[in-house]
């Protein structure tokens, strides 16, 4: 009996960053109002580039730019701050 060896699926390890308390409050505010910002790998690019997906009330919008590992999470928090400042009218 012979076994076929399966190739491993491609994977990219997501970057990691520590969030500050103020940033976590902004992220929490956005998530409770159905605004989410996430990253996904750009499989078309051989380099570790990431794309940003913004989910607002079930509609997903993709940022046309691609970001390196060291800048993608900074851009994510910029998006969260943008939507926090746009919709948080106090």
Kindly describe this structure.
- This protein is α+β, with helices and mostly antiparallel strands.
- Helix content is 34%, strand content 23%.
- It is built from two helices and four strands, in the order H-E-E-E-E-H.
- A hairpin with a 2-residue loop joins strand 2 and strand 3.
- It is elongated and about 65 Å long.
Descriptive key words:
four-stranded antiparallel sheet, alpha+beta, elongated, 2 helices, 90 residues
Summarize the structure.
With 90 residues, the protein is an alpha+beta fold. The protein has helices spanning 21-32, 69-87, and strands at residues 35-41, 49-56, 59-62, 67-68.
Describe the SSE topology.
Blueprint: H1 21-32, E1 35-41, E2 49-56, E3 59-62, E4 67-68, H2 69-87
Antiparallel strand pairs: 1-2, 2-3, 2-4
């Amino acid at each position: 009996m012979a076994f076929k060896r399966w190739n491993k699926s491609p994977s990219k390890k997501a970057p990691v960053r520590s969030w500050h308390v103020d940033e976590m409050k902004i992220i929490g505010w956005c998530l409770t109002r159905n605004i989410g910002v996430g990253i996904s790998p750009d499989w078309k690019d051989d380099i570790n580039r990431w794309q940003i997906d913004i989910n607002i009330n079930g509609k997903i919008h993709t940022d046309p730019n691609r970001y390196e590992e060291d800048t993608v999470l900074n851009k994510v928090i910029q998006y969260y701050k943008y939507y926090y400042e746009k919709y948080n009218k106090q």
